[in-house]
Amino acid sequence: MENKRVILAVALSFVVLLGWQYLFPQPQQPAPVQQEQTVNQDQAVQTQTAGPVSDQLPDPATTAAIVSAKGTKLTVETPLYSAVINSQGGLLENFMLKKFKATIDADSPDVDMVGTNALNKAPMGLIINGIATWANGVWGYEGKNLNLEGDKLGTLIFRGDVEGFRIERRLTFHADNYLIDEDVRIINMSNPSGMGRLAFTTATKSLTSEKDTYNPTRIAWFGPEGLSEEKDRDDLRETGVTASGDIDWAAIDSNYFILALVPGSNDVTMKGKVQDDIFRIAAEQNVSFDKNIERRLSCSYYFGPMDAALMAKVPGNLEKAIDFGWFDIIAKPLVVALEWFNQYVNNYGISIILLTIAIKILFWPLSHKSYKSMEQMKRLQPMMAKLREKHGNDKEALNKEMMQLYKTYKVNPAGGCLPMVLQIPVFFGLYKALMGTVALRHADFIHYLPFSDIVWLADLSAKDPLYITPIIMGATMFLQQKMTPSAGDPTQQKIMMLLPLVFTFMFLNFPSGLVVYWMVNNILSIAQQWLMIRKVKN
User: Fold this and answer.
1) CA 220: distance to chain centroid?
2) CA 31-263-123 angle, 5° bins
3) What is the residue extent of each domain of the chain?
4) Would you call 353 helix, strand, or coil by DSSP?
5) Buried/exposed code over 301-332 (b: 16+ C-beta within 10 A; e: otherwise)
6) Do the beta carbons of residue 310 and residue 304 sit within 8 Å?
7) In a structure prediction context, what are the per-residue pLDDT tens digits for the chain, which is 538 residues long?
8) Helix or strand or coil: residue 475?
9) Side-chain-facing half-sphere of 405: CA atoms under 13 Å
10) Is 293 in contact with 240 (CB distance < 8 Å)?
11) Residue 57, Cβ density class (10 Å: 0-12 exposed, 13-18 middle, ≥19 buried)
12) What SS3 state is found at 466?
């Protein structure tokens, strides 16, 4: 009985954890608030000159019109992306990812990391002392359309005179990465400012649907306290987020894609906000603008997939943006294992099945021990019932005789649930990995339902559109429950048999890759239990 109660508690805890993930977003760390403090005279001048990011940009309705009227569009083509840069301030008009489609439809366009309306918020815009350099200056450029292959680099140079500042922006593009390096040179020719602030900015449309709780668009940053993020859109619309100090990077990201700013100086102020449904971030830093003295600053940009290998090549620990929460230490090795299998089979559905088999083999001894312990506890049920009848409410005497009973028959009452408890972190680690791995986005398994032209498991990151796999998963879980040795308590048996229905309901909208894993795991568990039942009978 005690063993059964522990197992029931574990199972119900499992449901609660999954249900919490299903119904509620993961709580976020509170965003650090920039505190007001005593400043010296130079800092006071700078603070008066430059306000919050939201106050530094011109009216969004005029930005696109100014750029299109004055600028020349320059294209950058690489094997990974196609980008358009406007010479009026060096703004980014679009950034199309050639290896990722917006949907699974055959005629789907490439993913655009910017979006049409985001141009109004000046992606890759440069702000000096609150001056929108793309809107207020006269700009020219050096270079031509780039077409990069292999590991080549290409550079575009934009030069402008903006309210007494002479600015040169050098943008270097990489053919084998989504990285853009920027080198900025500024000379104060006639502006009265001696101290001020320079801000690198970017903006994009929402990367996901506002209702997508599994894959929200968020603003994130990395500093001394580690990874912080905010995904509550109401808070981002009303107040935004601000963090100052040793900030490695700031980004707009989702489970699959990221737009990141990596400033050359860590002593920056990161600001982020949602305006007119456009996500915006800026990295500001103090700069001295003594006249006729050239100032050089730098920033790197990464606009692309959440690919750990590519992000590791970007400065500033950008790969830390890939985070699976509490189960990160388990999820990341599982992703590596999944990628390893896929390099041989070239099908992520089959790779998930192979990974499931590998995990099942790894835990086979524990599962065998668990089943054996439950079978032993089942055999002791009649004797335990007699002890309860004998001692009634005398719990001390009952517990003493039960412990003697366990000792006599060499049974560990916790033996049936301990292996299950050890496996739960692995289950949730894989759950997080399958929910947040870009390789599984639009990954095909069984594109069409057999013997038909109905699209089925064409995207392992989306739910099963026909609900076939979650229903089969629920059925296998029900069969597994029927095969599991059970105690004599009918109430507990009914609760345990209700769990497959609860899990089926929760899994209806889960990514099909996760459902495939769970279904295969159940089938393997049924086979394992069948073998153990035969062994016990023999």
Assistant:
1) 11
2) 85
3) 2-20+333-537, 42-321
4) helix
5) bbbbbbbbebbeebebebbebbbbeebeebbb
6) yes
7) 444 444 454 555 555 555 544 444 443 443 333 333 333 323 322 333 333 443 444 555 567 776 766 889 999 999 999 999 999 999 999 999 999 999 998 899 999 999 878 888 989 999 999 899 998 888 999 999 999 998 899 999 999 999 999 999 999 999 999 999 999 999 999 988 888 899 999 999 999 988 888 789 999 999 988 999 999 999 999 999 999 999 999 999 999 999 999 999 888 999 999 998 999 999 999 999 999 999 999 999 999 999 999 999 998 899 999 998 888 899 999 999 999 999 999 999 999 999 999 988 888 887 777 777 777 777 777 787 788 777 777 788 888 888 888 777 777 766 556 666 777 788 788 888 888 889 889 999 999 999 999 999 999 988 999 999 999 999 998 888 787 665 555 666 667 778 888 889 989 988 899 899 989 988 998 888 888 777 766 6
8) helix
9) 19
10) no
11) buried
12) coil
Q: Measure the CA–CA gap between 519 and 512, rounded to whole angstroms.
A: 10
Residue 370, classed as helix, strand or coil, is: helix
270: tokens are 């990161």
The residue with tokens 């009918």 is 490
Can you tell me whether residue 168 is helix, strand or coil? strand
Query: Partners of 263 in the beta sheet?
Result: 299
Non-local CB neighbours of 275 within 8 Å, separated by 6+ positions? 54, 60, 121, 237
CA separation for the pair 465, 162 (Å, rounded): 54
Task: Give the Cα separation of 157 and 153 in Å (integer).
Answer: 13
DSSP designation for 30: P
What backbone torsions phi and psi does residue 394 show, to the nearest 5 degrees?
-80, 85
The Cα–Cα gap between 273 and 242 comes to 9
Q: Which secondary structure element, helix H or strand E, spans residue 352, and what is its range?
A: helix 348-362
**Fold held by 42-321:** Beta-galactosidase; Chain A, domain 5 (2.70.98)
**Phi and psi dihedrals of 481, rounded to 5?**
-65, -40
d(CA 182, CA 168): 10
